[in-house]
Amino acid sequence: MLSFLSRHSSILLIAAGFAGFAFPDLSASALPFLPYVLFTLMLFTLIGIDQRALVKAIIDPGAWVYALVHCGVTTIVVSIFGIAFGASTELLMAATAVCATGTLFATPAIVRSVGFAPLKAMAFTITSTLMMPVALYVNLVMLSTDEFTLDLQDYCLRLFIFIFGPMLFSYTIHKLVPEHRLSRIHGKLAQFTIILVFSFPFGLTGQYRWLWDSDRSFAITMLFIAFAICVLFFVIGLALYWNKGRSEAYVAAITSGNRNVLLTYSVAGAFLGPLYLPLIGALQLPIYMQPVLVKFFLKRDGKRTAKA
Hints:
CATH architecture: Up-down Bundle
Order of helices and strands: HHHHHHHHHHHHHHHH
Number of domains: 1
Largest sheet: none
Radius of gyration: 19 Å
């Protein structure tokens, strides 16, 4: 059963989003449990990664250059488009907050489900998350008309719990458990890891359903904006890393498109404006369509290579 779910995870992620939209009450019930899922997801993913290799990947300047692209370049591009199309301040605040947001912690598992090694995605996830408070602060200074404070104490606590905590656990497990046994265990955990990701589209799309029921036309507008933002993130990552090889370009594109919007909301709260929650609900569908599209592109490229 786990093998079947893992093989078809790309489609099932989209189905989970639709399920959350169809059953908003169940979706809202799942929302409080997502932080616990984040911790488990990070731990299971990190168990399969050499911690020394991960540390080297994190201190690599290239990972921090990616974080600047992830938070800074996307903010600039989205702001230019928003101003050009006359977006309101509230919409720009919501959109640039998404730009500042670090990568979704589930991204390494999603990258693995597509067929790529998760190490680079994990390094990108950590550096972009560490970059997030700076980018978010700058964006809010530029756009907010009210005084605000970021809950940095809470943010640092979450960083420790969701990143350094699992890294410490993983390091301890690698020290105590023989590698051959750990390899067999992780083979099973890898299939279970992607199933945990299903909870994110399911738990967040219910928020978009409330908007759909109250203002259908506005909800459709937000969905179009969400698709445009997600496509833009994906294209930026793909274009800037294409010369480093298709594998790294697709990893960067997926990582750029996935955003840990729930963590951002917990840090900045009401200062993100009234359109942030509707926007992140609408973002769930385009975010989780990415693995399907990447698999399609890879399959098409494989056929072309075989014919050549």
